[in-house]
Amino acid sequence: MSSDVRNILTALEGIPEPWQPHLLARVNDYAVKVVKLDGEFVWHTHDDTDELFLVLSGRLTIQLRDRDVVLGPHDVFVVPKGVEHCPRADGEVHALLVEPTVTVNTGDAGGERTAPLRELD
C-alpha cells in the first residue's frame, strides 16, 4: 500500500458487500479498515487485541453479553480484548475499524463470514 492520501468516502463507494473489511491504511502493525455493515454479524471474541469501532454513518449496536452499546455517527467504542461481542446494523452502516493487521474479522468464531482483509483499488 502506498503512502498516498486516501479518502474514506471514496473508499466506501468501492466496497460492494457488507461485512467485507477493506484496508484504508497501515499504522505500524495496525490496520485502519473501512467496512459497510448491514444486519447481524456473528458472536465472536478477539483474545489478543482490542477492536476500535468508529461509526461514520448509520446506527450500529455492539451487542455484549451484559449490555448493548449503541453508536451513531462519529461515535467511537473500543471492545476490549477477550470480550465476546456481536455487531448489529439495522440498515446500512459505514464504519472505520482499527485493529492489528493480522486480526480475523470473525475472531475465534470462524465460519462463512470470515473475510480476508482486502486492498482498496
UniProtKB/TrEMBL annotation:
<dbReference type="InterPro" id="IPR014710">
    <property type="entry name" value="RmlC-like_jellyroll"/>
</dbReference>
<dbReference type="GO" id="GO:0016853">
    <property type="term" value="F:isomerase activity"/>
</dbReference>
<dbReference type="InterPro" id="IPR013096">
    <property type="entry name" value="Cupin_2"/>
</dbReference>
<keyword id="KW-0413">Isomerase</keyword>
<dbReference type="Pfam" id="PF07883">
    <property type="entry name" value="Cupin_2"/>
</dbReference>
<dbReference type="InterPro" id="IPR052044">
    <property type="entry name" value="PKS_Associated_Protein"/>
</dbReference>
<dbReference type="InterPro" id="IPR011051">
    <property type="entry name" value="RmlC_Cupin_sf"/>
</dbReference>
<protein>
    <submittedName>
        <fullName>Mannose-6-phosphate isomerase, cupin superfamily</fullName>
    </submittedName>
</protein>
<feature type="domain" description="Cupin type-2">
    <location>
        <begin position="39"/>
        <end position="96"/>
    </location>
</feature>
